[in-house]
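We now fix the convention by which a protein and its fold are recorded. Think of the row as the fold of the chain written in a discrete alphabet. Here is one such record, which you should read through line by line.
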Amino acid sequence: MSGAVSSALPSSAAAPARTGGMGVSRRVLPGFHLTLGYSLVYLGLIVLIPLSALVFKTFALTWDQFWVAVTAPRVMASYRLTFGASFIAALVNLVFGLLVAWVLVRYKFPGKRIVDALVDLPFALPTAVAGISLTALLAGNGWIGQYLEPLGIKLAFTPAGVVIALIFIGLPFVVRTVQPVLEDTEKELEEAATSLGATRLQTFTKVILPSIMPALLTGFAMAFARAIGEYGSVIFIAGNMPMISEITPLIIIGKLEQYDFAGATAVALVMLVISFVMLLVINGLQAWQRRRSGAPV
């Protein structure tokens, strides 16, 4: 009976494809070494060479000159604003990005496709347009700002405006990272937890959250990294006041305009190192979470 079944199957289904009768499965792409070689060359040209040029340009400074350039009070204030606002914005997007992804995956409602498309709008919208739009809304004579400023709430041209701009541009990273994971989550596990007497909070924290935590951390890391390097949408709403609302990318642009190329690369190198360390920590948390949940790292 098994012989008849196997003879009735097409040759492609009866046995795996072979090459040259040597028992090796066909590969869509070339072998590992050739593919790895192309990947390393491409990454080297696109990523490593530009970053190495940044490092080598910094070597034009002595250690004392480098230290003075990267620890000036105005530069330190920009570090605090850039990384602090980026971290706060990424945390806010972590919460509300999960909420938006949950609504898009678990509920059906009129206009769902429109809402889903609006999530991607910050991707397509030029950052300068986003900055001008937010300023028109939140400035003292803006649609919203004119009602908030009499109450003592000033958002435009303050660090709070920087956070709002970074939340706007970072939201899609969390939503689009968590959304497919939520779609693949087995609802039977939630139903089983409910049938065993688990509350909604217990079901979420014990069943759903562990399965989506790696995706949440990935979305957080992407939103955080995007916010650190943001320039266009921030300079319009920040006010760019030294020591108050001046971001580090603007410091770098200012040094370049003054032909202080070595000083600009020194500040950029500090941003690169801090960003790399933070992303490395987040990736370590992702690996720890996967090991804890039993998923492959």
About this structure: The CA atoms of residues 288 and 294 lie 10 Å apart. The chain has a mean pLDDT of 82. The chain has two domains: 17-59, 62-293. DSSP finds 15 helices and no strands in the chain.
